[in-house]
Amino acid sequence: MTDARFDEKLGISTGGFKEWDSDQPHYHRYEPTSYEVLEYLFERYKLKRGDKFVDFGSGKGRVAIYVHHRFKIPVVGIEAQADVHALAMLNRQCYRTRAGKTRVRVHFEHGLAEDYLIKPDENRFYFFNSFSVDVFQEVLVNITASLEEASRDVHLILYYPMPSYTKVMSGHPLFEIHKEIKLPDTSDRKERILIYRSTER
Length: 201
Ligand SMILES: C[S@@+](CC[C@H](N)C(=O)[O-])C[C@H]1O[C@@H](n2cnc3c(N)ncnc32)[C@H](O)[C@@H]1O
Fold this sequence. Notes:
By secondary structure, the protein is of the alpha/beta class. It has helices spanning 3-10, 35-44, 62-71, 82-99, 133-149, 163-169; strands at 53-56, 75-79, 106-110, 124-128, 155-159, 175-182, 192-198. Helix content is 35%, strand content 19%. The chain has a seven-stranded mixed sheet with strand order 3-2-1-4-5-7-6, covered by helices on one side.
């Protein structure tokens, strides 16, 4: 199914790119994870009831809404570009109309990922090339602080990980590699998903 058809099925519109209006050396543009990658990932890696999913740099909301639709778990997306966040809110409204009544939360926040206050029950964190490794490290500090307050089974899901990200993760005292999912038909080494899990659960 094409991305456009998938969007249509969910009642949302998440295609295209959106650059920042001003120069932002640490913050990357909007570009969605393709549905093909989401399907490939979630056929091989499952989320379960009780999980709470957070997308850091959630754009127009594609990943969060897909996960909500597929696994019926609460999802949160944090997006820094105000106009992109506004489109995610519109998508949320259209999706909820299409999906019918559900008490499972779909929540989008406008703000910086590094300022987001991690809740003690959030346990699945998704990253797709949203920001520089410096910002990633700030988010990681927040996640580890949250883990120290509430020890739990946390997974970091990194799609298209930069070598700078994997360098930070290798040898991290609180995380170990859980799974590597290589995408088919590509010679690009970054076309993979790395899932790290907390060592103290
Ligand atoms: C590559 S897109 C990924 C979108 C979405 N996660 C997906 O996979 O479809 C990165 C998004 O992160 C946003 N972003 C960049 N820096 C951010 C930050 N510090 N905090 C929150 N969002 C940020 C961008 O505006 C953009 O929408």
